[in-house]
Amino acid sequence: MLLEANKAFNLTAIRDPDEAWSRHILDSLTLLGVLAEIKAPEGEGGASVRIIDVGTGGGLPGIPLAIVRPDVSVTLLDATAKKCAFLEHVTREMGLTNVEVVCARAEVAGQDRGERTATGRVGGHRDAYDLVAARAVGRVATLSELTAGLARVGGLIALIKGEKAAEELEEARGALHLLHLAHAGTVQTGTGRIVVLEKLRATPKSYPRRDGEAKRAPLGKA
């Protein structure tokens, strides 16, 4: 479905099925090791682990993870309407009842606190996820701001990166400090590297900033 839809509008530069299996599907599934370490917070009545895939595009890594881990709840976040429509189609066709598609910018979702009721907060994406994943979306300094507000305190952020992971991480040191994130480790995989960040404390209310600011002026850079 991904390669077929790619003929109509751009979802991936990869058009060879064999290459897509290794560079898309296998690369997405490298997150299974990180996911295996996560448990839903205690006191939530057996609620499933919640994942959000930021800038999911064609549904990577979110859809492969949802297929192999039907016990987790996966939110696919993208700002492009055509991509969201494709993801809705895939979700229906494959019967993925553990997937939700949200068509919005990460800056908007990261500030969405839901609605306050007499019994607590209802809905919203801020501080809501056990694992925030992103693949091929941007540099660590930018991604850390776009993802931090979505993770719960104590939750993890997993960024699938390439050979420049260490360089990007060093560049992002100031941003991580401002966002109350810590580098929990970098995992070498068969297809790249996973930079794992842990959310130590609540994200300051002003982050993420307005649309496009994280990319135009990454935090911590002079």
Outline the structure in words:
By secondary structure, this protein is an alpha/beta fold. It has a single domain, classed as 3-Layer(aba) Sandwich (Rossmann fold), CATH 3.40.50.150. Helices cover 33% and strands 25% of the residues. The protein is built from ten helices and nine strands. The strands form two sheets. It has a seven-stranded mixed beta sheet, sandwiched between helices. The longest helix is centred in the middle third of the chain and has 14 residues, at 81-94. It is globular. The termini are far apart. The mean pLDDT is 92.
Features:
single chain, 222 residues, alpha/beta, Rossmann fold, seven-stranded mixed beta sheet, 10 helices
Briefly characterize the structure.
It contains ten helices and nine strands. It has 222 residues and is of the alpha/beta class. Helix 7 (140-148) packs parallel to helix 9.
